[in-house]
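Here is an idea for our session: we take a single protein and study its fold together. Start from the sequence, derive the backbone structure tokens from it, and show both lines together. Once you have written the record down, we can walk along the chain together:
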Amino acid sequence: MGLTKQIGIMQGRLSPRIDGKIQAYPAKTWQKEFEIAQEIGYSAIEWIVEEPMAENALMTDSGLSEIAKIIEKTNVKVDYICADIFMQQPLIRMSSETKESNKLYLSQILLSANRIGAIGVEIPFVDNSSIKNEEEKNELLEILQDSFKLANDLNLKISLETDLAPLEFKNLLDEINLEFVQANYDIGNSASLGYDCLEELEAYGNRILNVHIKDRVLGGTTVELGTGNANISLALEKLNSINYSGGITMQAARGVDDVETAKRHLEYTLEILQKI
């Protein structure tokens, strides 16, 4: 199969910034993003779920109907849901009350993902929600059991994004040992952590559901593609060599003009893919 040239983009990247954030759910402009994505050549939008949940179209019946209509109209899909809510209130280290709330949120997200035909839901365990020790890993596994069962029943995939070292992440996936629980691989985040992309992809490359394209400096922030420490070409070449055929989502740095920036990032990535 090989690498897809059907590239998605993270929701919000085709809208003006909200409160100066690099990433946020665009409650007022999400519909327009599908039209822009279609115009400039993106095939999918990775949907963001965060607080306030009540304002998110993915979380309401009327919103889900509207999403389905726009997908049909533009042929721009929602393949992946990014559950950023669990960056705001992590699945681990929380009170019993918050844990129960999180379980309910995740169930709702999975059910909604199924209704719009998504492939999978990504759960972040980075930064504020990082897994720090064995106890927290066990806590995570306990909390996710019901969601694993629901995802399996719905024929959905769950992908975990972590900042664990390559073999630690592989061991976590091995311990879960469910075919539909996979990895999200973020090229820029790994570069920022100082990880070797070849070592990572050797460890768990065959378990990746979706890849995020971004560039970051070592120990630092997101920067323009090609200007940081991420070796995007090498990572994509390695993915191709192991016959990766999953998704690719653009999650690169913002620019002055969001649409022009998104166009430039797509061209940059497609140029690499053409050479591969």
Q: What stands out?
A: Strands lie at 8-10, 44-48, 80-82, 120-125, 157-162, 181-186, 208-213, 215-216, 222-223, 247-250.
